[in-house]
Amino acid sequence: MAGIGPISQDWEPVVIRKKAPTAAARKDEKAVNAARRAGAEIETIKKSNAGANKAASSGTSLNTRKLDEETENLSREYMFNFTCYEVHTLQVSHHDRVPTELKKAIMQARMDKKLTQAQLAQIINEKPQVIQEYECGKAIPNQQIISKLERALGAKLRGKK
Protein backbone atom coordinates (compact mmCIF):
# COMPACT_ATOMS: atom_id res chain seq x y z
CA MET A 1 0.00 0.00 0.00
CA ALA A 2 2.98 2.22 0.14
CA GLY A 3 2.99 4.81 -2.54
CA ILE A 4 -0.75 4.80 -3.07
CA GLY A 5 -2.24 8.22 -2.67
CA PRO A 6 -1.18 11.09 -0.47
CA ILE A 7 -0.14 10.52 3.12
CA SER A 8 -2.68 11.77 5.64
CA GLN A 9 -2.41 12.25 9.36
CA ASP A 10 -5.29 11.40 11.71
CA TRP A 11 -4.03 13.35 14.74
CA GLU A 12 -4.59 16.93 15.70
CA PRO A 13 -1.52 18.92 16.72
CA VAL A 14 -1.02 19.05 20.53
CA VAL A 15 0.60 22.07 22.17
CA ILE A 16 2.19 21.44 25.57
CA ARG A 17 2.53 24.50 27.76
CA LYS A 18 3.82 25.13 31.23
CA LYS A 19 1.32 25.59 34.02
CA ALA A 20 0.35 29.12 34.91
CA PRO A 21 2.43 30.40 37.81
CA THR A 22 0.91 29.87 41.25
CA ALA A 23 0.26 32.75 43.63
CA ALA A 24 3.47 32.00 45.51
CA ALA A 25 5.49 31.91 42.29
CA ARG A 26 4.00 35.24 41.18
CA LYS A 27 5.22 36.79 44.43
CA ASP A 28 8.67 35.29 43.99
CA GLU A 29 11.47 37.83 43.71
CA LYS A 30 12.50 36.54 40.26
CA ALA A 31 8.96 36.86 38.93
CA VAL A 32 8.60 40.38 40.32
CA ASN A 33 11.90 41.46 38.74
CA ALA A 34 10.88 39.92 35.41
CA ALA A 35 7.57 41.79 35.54
CA ARG A 36 9.40 45.06 36.29
CA ARG A 37 11.67 44.53 33.29
CA ALA A 38 8.64 43.82 31.11
CA GLY A 39 7.08 47.08 32.27
CA ALA A 40 4.10 45.54 34.05
CA GLU A 41 2.44 47.30 36.94
CA ILE A 42 3.43 45.94 40.32
CA GLU A 43 1.42 46.52 43.47
CA THR A 44 3.04 46.16 46.87
CA ILE A 45 1.00 45.80 50.04
CA LYS A 46 2.42 45.98 53.54
CA LYS A 47 0.70 43.63 55.95
CA SER A 48 0.52 44.85 59.53
CA ASN A 49 0.89 41.59 61.45
CA ALA A 50 2.45 39.37 58.81
CA GLY A 51 4.08 36.29 60.23
CA ALA A 52 3.17 37.13 63.80
CA ASN A 53 1.65 34.68 66.19
CA LYS A 54 -1.89 35.95 66.63
CA ALA A 55 -2.41 34.17 69.95
CA ALA A 56 0.70 35.74 71.44
CA SER A 57 0.17 39.21 70.01
CA SER A 58 -3.51 39.48 70.91
CA GLY A 59 -2.68 40.35 74.49
CA THR A 60 -3.13 38.05 77.41
CA SER A 61 -5.32 35.04 76.94
CA LEU A 62 -8.08 34.18 79.36
CA ASN A 63 -5.99 31.65 81.29
CA THR A 64 -3.02 34.00 81.53
CA ARG A 65 -5.26 36.81 82.68
CA LYS A 66 -6.79 34.60 85.40
CA LEU A 67 -3.36 33.54 86.58
CA ASP A 68 -2.18 37.15 86.71
CA GLU A 69 -5.26 38.19 88.69
CA GLU A 70 -4.85 35.33 91.17
CA THR A 71 -1.17 36.14 91.64
CA GLU A 72 -2.00 39.79 92.15
CA ASN A 73 -4.72 38.95 94.70
CA LEU A 74 -2.42 36.61 96.59
CA SER A 75 0.37 39.17 96.68
CA ARG A 76 -2.08 41.81 97.98
CA GLU A 77 -3.26 39.43 100.72
CA TYR A 78 0.32 38.62 101.62
CA MET A 79 1.26 42.28 101.83
CA PHE A 80 -1.87 43.02 103.88
CA ASN A 81 -1.16 40.18 106.30
CA PHE A 82 2.48 41.15 106.50
CA THR A 83 1.78 44.79 107.31
CA CYS A 84 -0.86 44.06 109.96
CA TYR A 85 0.14 44.18 113.60
CA GLU A 86 -1.26 40.75 114.10
CA VAL A 87 1.20 38.83 111.96
CA HIS A 88 0.05 35.35 111.04
CA THR A 89 2.58 32.68 110.25
CA LEU A 90 2.49 31.72 106.61
CA GLN A 91 1.56 28.14 106.12
CA VAL A 92 3.71 26.91 103.29
CA SER A 93 3.50 23.20 102.74
CA HIS A 94 6.91 21.63 102.46
CA HIS A 95 7.21 17.97 101.65
CA ASP A 96 9.20 15.83 103.99
CA ARG A 97 12.67 15.04 102.76
CA VAL A 98 14.77 11.94 103.37
CA PRO A 99 16.09 12.08 106.95
CA THR A 100 19.84 12.13 107.50
CA GLU A 101 19.81 8.72 109.25
CA LEU A 102 18.08 7.09 106.26
CA LYS A 103 20.36 8.56 103.62
CA LYS A 104 23.45 7.51 105.61
CA ALA A 105 22.00 4.01 106.11
CA ILE A 106 21.32 3.63 102.36
CA MET A 107 24.78 4.82 101.46
CA GLN A 108 26.47 2.56 104.06
CA ALA A 109 24.50 -0.55 103.04
CA ARG A 110 25.24 0.10 99.36
CA MET A 111 28.95 0.52 100.05
CA ASP A 112 28.98 -2.70 102.13
CA LYS A 113 27.52 -4.59 99.15
CA LYS A 114 30.09 -2.85 96.88
CA LEU A 115 27.38 -1.53 94.54
CA THR A 116 27.32 1.69 92.59
CA GLN A 117 24.21 3.88 92.60
CA ALA A 118 23.48 2.79 89.02
CA GLN A 119 23.79 -0.92 89.90
CA LEU A 120 21.50 -0.55 92.92
CA ALA A 121 18.99 1.38 90.82
CA GLN A 122 18.99 -1.41 88.25
CA ILE A 123 18.42 -4.05 90.93
CA ILE A 124 15.33 -2.25 92.28
CA ASN A 125 14.10 -1.18 88.80
CA GLU A 126 14.42 2.55 89.40
CA LYS A 127 16.43 5.27 87.72
CA PRO A 128 19.92 6.01 89.08
CA GLN A 129 18.72 9.55 89.78
CA VAL A 130 16.31 8.15 92.41
CA ILE A 131 19.16 6.56 94.37
CA GLN A 132 21.21 9.73 94.03
CA GLU A 133 18.32 11.85 95.37
CA TYR A 134 17.80 9.49 98.32
CA GLU A 135 21.49 9.58 99.23
CA CYS A 136 21.64 13.37 98.89
CA GLY A 137 18.48 13.83 100.95
CA LYS A 138 16.58 15.61 98.16
CA ALA A 139 13.99 12.89 97.54
CA ILE A 140 10.53 12.80 99.05
CA PRO A 141 10.40 9.46 100.92
CA ASN A 142 8.37 6.74 99.24
CA GLN A 143 7.72 3.66 101.34
CA GLN A 144 7.66 1.35 98.31
CA ILE A 145 11.10 2.48 97.19
CA ILE A 146 12.46 2.24 100.72
CA SER A 147 11.18 -1.35 101.03
CA LYS A 148 12.75 -2.21 97.64
CA LEU A 149 16.04 -0.78 98.92
CA GLU A 150 15.77 -2.81 102.13
CA ARG A 151 15.21 -6.04 100.18
CA ALA A 152 18.01 -5.34 97.68
CA LEU A 153 20.53 -4.28 100.32
CA GLY A 154 19.49 -6.87 102.89
CA ALA A 155 19.44 -4.23 105.59
CA LYS A 156 16.80 -2.59 107.74
CA LEU A 157 16.72 1.09 106.77
CA ARG A 158 13.65 2.21 108.69
CA GLY A 159 12.80 1.98 112.36
CA LYS A 160 11.29 -1.14 113.86
CA LYS A 161 8.39 -2.53 111.87
Automatic annotation (TrEMBL):
The alphabetical list of record keywords is: DNA-binding, Transcription, Transcription regulation
Residue span, HTH cro/C1-type domain: 106-160
Q: Which domain of life is it from?
A: Eukaryota
Low complexity compositional bias: what residue ranges? 47-59
Q: Where is this region: Disordered?
A: 47-67
Positions of transmembrane segments: none
GO MF annotations, alphabetized: DNA binding; transcription coactivator activity
Q: Does the keyword DNA-binding apply?
A: yes
Q: List the subcellular locations.
A: Nucleus, Nucleolus
One Pfam family from the record: HTH_3
Q: Name one GO cellular component term.
A: nucleolus
Decide whether keyword Aminoacyl-tRNA synthetase is in the record: no
Q: Which InterPro entries match?
A: Cro/C1-type_HTH, Lambda_DNA-bd_dom_sf, MBF1_N
Q: Which family does it belong to?
A: Belongs to the MBF1 family.
Q: What is this protein called?
A: Multiprotein bridging factor 1B
Q: Which organism is it from?
A: Actinidia rufa
